[in-house]
Amino acid sequence: MPAGTIRYWAAAKAAAGTAEEPYTAATLKEALDGVRERHPGELSRVLQRCSFLIDGDPVGTRSHETVRLAEGGTVEVLPPFAGG
Q: H or E element: which one contains 34?
């Protein structure tokens, strides 16, 4: 199963209490399920509003269970940002 890094930004970072942590998951859905288990509460609510980048590429509207993760990859968790 691929392992990599999840990076949290802004409100997601505050809710997670960390800037980054490892993942072991084959899909974005699996990685986010693991995040929700480790950080119940506020982070789960923040994730509902977030967009995601996988190795620099936007996930957009793709179903998270179809987004494959790579060994050594990076998932960026981006809450909505105010301003420019």
A: helix 28-38
